[in-house]
């Protein structure tokens, strides 16, 4: 033991990795940890034993990573996110520990098929979509580029719902991902904290209590208990910790109630605590205005901050040096209440004066903005905030008075600009603006693509940006190539290694060397063969899952992402209806056989999104049964889109649909995954598509539609969709067919309202972009007919996407925001 209570353990000796040793280890785990012999073992038992064998090696590396003392490491990163969309971990961990091939051989020697047991691992879906997946990619990249980091979040019992399609409609079912236990996690009861809610605030007692020092007496308390999951980086160099909190009732109170005979009261209390971390809010790009959501946000922010501060003080004695050792990144505003919580800890628990507390807070936090959509900007009614967090309400007011004081003193703001800077929205019912709180409490505020960052400066944060002109910066998103190329597409990975060697495995930018093969017809053939095999695999899966017959020779045109009007699945479906009409009218033309695949979940309360899913199914039924377009056009909605489904669909795509209304998609990361797997993109100049065009070259991407500026101008001029529809025969026909019930004879009025919305206001500019989109699709058709040219462009996409690795993104965060040199 050293003085700080840390035991230096002997560093584990490296284990041997070969199939024979591994097979022995698996059988040993099966016998002694699961208690079965090989003959009696079920597939789930094998999976469990394999994970334990991989996990032991991850733990070896974890121990080495955490042996580096705090002093040696300098600053650590704490990534606070209400969502981590992890997916399966077995293949990821085995691959990063460089034991995947040996594991496969070991299992084969035991008569077990690795693919069969891998498919049994639950897909950990503790997130809705892109934001949560980004957090998962970042965890892996931080470990890979050697950034010491903790991820903090919530261990939801029920993560993202499982989507079934019944009669074409989305049905939401609970996904019990913990049903078979979770061998990756470790419960750490000794690191539990109390979290308070409600109650009252009294002035602090004692002679040296400062004027800002208060004592909060919460009326309600729950316990936050952490579960740690080790996250291994590439080649197992570093293993970081993902710490997820679970809410538990405080036992003594329960015991008292039980002893006093109030069994129902005790149960209610217990349920109330546990319900805190039961469900993930199924909302993407919409603010979930529920008390439980605010409770979740405070619960995990407070637990994480208590943990960070406890650890800091244990090592360094004083909270005043916190910013030198801790960089806390807020993934969107969901953890923004952490700004007020750190202030409370500094002011009330440590007696720091207000000015210094505010300085420490701002040097510690940084904030990532993920959306400009007004309906997605979080704010909480003041009465609710005050009732749940009375002390934090006072602190928000105190910060606000300082902030508005600074703004007024600068002399550059009108009253309405001061109103926009305020942490309190005074229009209508008074609300606490979490975006403004996060902005004010951070030294860095970043957007997630160049375009999104530029727009941030002139929209939501225009006035705050004027007050603090150096705070906003850009960090374009990325994805981890380990999962999104090497693991999900072993065929392509093998082909690339054959061509350019292994350097790209460690340096994604080295994919550039593949440019030299874009024109090589031998390489093109192999490239097309790999794509074809991936398409056949997807086709097989869809036959099993939804009984679809899909010809792998067709062009696979894929749009998979959350269903949202701004993402414009509707534009894609309307174009499909128009194409269907054109094929029937002109059967003599040389049509390209095309399969349009859709996938994605709709928020359960989002009526139009659910209707769009139904429409995709209705159009699919009509088109797929019409002999006139047999072999030329097919549509299929793929149920329950999640990380595991993405891993099969993306490597099989020829065409990637990234067609959001310009200015509305902050970055997108699906767009990046497709391109690095050799799909061509059809897309608008939105989010990271803009930078993708710059990297892959404008000849290798199909861009259409209004720019963000043009969307703005059109709206300002008074956009009249009815006129646009009047000028496009194809669009008018397609819309009218949908509205008149051609695709919904069982309920002819089903889509009247949806289509009427396009005629009346068309918020998402479907009509404005239709002709341009349709022309771009015909350009895609023409290109498909020249297969070598298509292959060449696809190869250029793979070669030039290296910059979109999340390793690059993390290095930028480390250098510019966290000031860490890994
Ligand atoms: C990458 C990913 C997303 C984000 O997709 P976008 O097209 O960027 O919206 C959402 N869900 C899953 C499962 C993903 O893997």
From TrEMBL:
Keywords: Carbohydrate metabolism, Glycosyltransferase, Pyridoxal phosphate, Transferase. It is an enzyme of class 2 (transferase). It comes from the Bacteria. Its EC number is 2.4.1.1. CDD domains: GT35_Glycogen_Phosphorylase. It catalyses: [(1->4)-alpha-D-glucosyl](n) + phosphate = [(1->4)-alpha-D-glucosyl](n-1) + alpha-D-glucose 1-phosphate. Its cofactor is pyridoxal 5'-phosphate. Pfam families: Phosphorylase. Allosteric enzyme that catalyzes the rate-limiting step in glycogen catabolism, the phosphorolytic cleavage of glycogen to produce glucose-1-phosphate, and plays a central role in maintaining cellular and organismal glucose homeostasis. Belongs to the glycogen phosphorylase family. This is Alpha-1,4 glucan phosphorylase. It comes from Sphingomonas bisphenolicum. The lineage of its organism: Bacteria, Pseudomonadati, Pseudomonadota, Alphaproteobacteria, Sphingomonadales. The gene is glgP.
């Amino acid at each position: 033991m050293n003085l700080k209570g840390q035991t230096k353990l002997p560093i584990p000796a490296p284990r041997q990795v070969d199939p024979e040793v591994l097979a022995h280890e698996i059988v040993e785990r099966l016998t002694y940890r699961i208690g079965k012999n090989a003959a009696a073992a079920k597939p789930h038992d094998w999976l469990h034993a394999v994970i334990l064998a991989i996990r032991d090696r991850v733990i070896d590396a974890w121990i080495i990573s955490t042996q580096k003392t705090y002093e040696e490491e300098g600053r650590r990163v704490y990534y606070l996110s209400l969502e981590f969309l992890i997916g399966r971990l077995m293949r990821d961990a085995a691959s990063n520990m460089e034991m995947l091939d040996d594991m496969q051989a070991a299992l084969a020697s035991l008569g077990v098929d690795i693919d069969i047991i891998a498919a049994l691992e639950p897909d950990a879906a503790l997130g809705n979509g892109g934001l949560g997946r980004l957090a998962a990619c970042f965890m892996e990249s931080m470990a890979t580029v050697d950034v010491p980091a903790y991820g903090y979040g919530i261990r939801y019992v029920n993560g993202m719902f499982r989507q079934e399609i019944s009669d074409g409609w989305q049905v939401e079912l609970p996904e019990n991902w913990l049903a078979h236990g979770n061998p990756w996690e470790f419960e750490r009861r000794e690191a539990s904290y109390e979290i308070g809610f409600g109650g009252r605030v009294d002035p602090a007692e004692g002679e040296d209590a400062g004027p800002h020092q208060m004592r909060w007496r919460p009326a309600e308390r729950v316990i936050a208990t952490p579960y740690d999951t080790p996250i291994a980086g590439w080649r197992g160099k570093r293993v970081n910790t993902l710490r997820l909190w679970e809410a538990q009732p405080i036992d003594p109170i329960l015991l008292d109630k039980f002893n006093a005979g109030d069994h129902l009261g005790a149960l209610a209390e217990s349920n109330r605590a546990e319900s805190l971390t039961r469900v993930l809010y199924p909302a993407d790009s919409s603010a979930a205005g529920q008390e439980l959501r605010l409770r979740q946000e405070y619960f995990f922010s407070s637990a994480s901050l208590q943990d960070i501060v406890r650890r800091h003080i244990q090592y360094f004695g004083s909270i005043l040096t916190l910013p030198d050792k801790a960089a806390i990144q807020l993934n969107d505003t969901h953890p923004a209440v952490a700004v007020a919580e750190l202030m409370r800890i500094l002011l009330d628990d440590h007696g720091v004066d207000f000015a210094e507390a505010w300085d420490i807070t701002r040097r510690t936090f940084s904030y990532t903005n993920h959306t400009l959509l007004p309906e997605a900007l979080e704010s909480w009614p003041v009465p609710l905030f005050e009732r749940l967090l009375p002390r934090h309400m006072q602190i928000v007011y105190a910060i606000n008075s300082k902030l508005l004081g600074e703004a007024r003193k600068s002399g550059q703001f009108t009253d309405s600009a001061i109103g926009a800077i305020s942490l309190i929205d005074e229009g209508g019912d008074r609300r606490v603006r979490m975006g403004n709180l996060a902005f004010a409490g951070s030294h860095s505020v970043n957007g997630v693509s160049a375009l999104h960052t530029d727009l941030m400066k002139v929209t939501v944060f225009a006035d705050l940006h004027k007050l603090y002109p150096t705070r906003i910066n850009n960090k374009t998103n990325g994805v981890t190539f380990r999962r999104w190329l090497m693991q999900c597409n072993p065929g392509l990975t093998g082909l690339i290694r054959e061509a350019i060697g292994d350097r790209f495995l460690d340096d994604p930018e080295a994919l550039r060397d593949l440019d030299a093969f874009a024109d090589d017809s031998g390489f093109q053939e192999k490239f097309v063969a790999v794509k074809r095999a991936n398409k056949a695999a997807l086709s097989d899966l869809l036959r099993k899952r939804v009984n679809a017959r899909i010809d792998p020779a067709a062009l696979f045109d894929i749009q998979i992402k959350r269903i949202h009007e701004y993402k414009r699945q509707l534009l894609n479906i309307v174009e499909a209806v128009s194409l269907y009409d054109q094929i029937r009218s002109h059967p003599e033309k040389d049509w390209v056989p095309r399969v349009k695949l859709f996938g994605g979940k709709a928020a359960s309360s989002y009526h139009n999104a659910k209707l769009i899913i139904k429409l995709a199914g209705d159009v699919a039924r009509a088109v797929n049964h019409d002999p006139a377009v047999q072999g030329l056009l097919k549509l299929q909605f793929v149920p329950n889109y999640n990380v595991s489904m993405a891993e099969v669909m993306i490597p099989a795509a020829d065409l990637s649909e990234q067609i959001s209304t310009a200015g509305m998609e902050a970055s997108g990361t699906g767009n990046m995954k497709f391109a690095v797997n050799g799909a061509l993109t059809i897309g608008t100049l939105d989010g990271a598509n803009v930078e993708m065009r710059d990297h892959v070259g404008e000849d290798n991407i199909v861009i259409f539609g209004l720019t963000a500026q043009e969307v703005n101008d059109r709206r300002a001029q008074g956009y009249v969709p009815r006129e646009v529809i009047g000028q496009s025969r194809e669009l008018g026909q397609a819309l009218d067919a949908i509205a008149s019930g051609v695709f919904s004879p069982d309920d002819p009025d089903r889509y009247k309202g949806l289509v009427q919305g396009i005629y009346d206001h068309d918020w998402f500019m479907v009509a404005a972009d239709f002709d341009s989109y349709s022309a771009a699709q015909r350009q895609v058709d023409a290109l498909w007919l020249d297969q070598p040219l298509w292959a060449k462009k696809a190869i250029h996409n793979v070669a030039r996407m290296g910059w979109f690795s999340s390793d690059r993104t993390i290095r930028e965060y480390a250098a510019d925001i966290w000031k860490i040199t890994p």
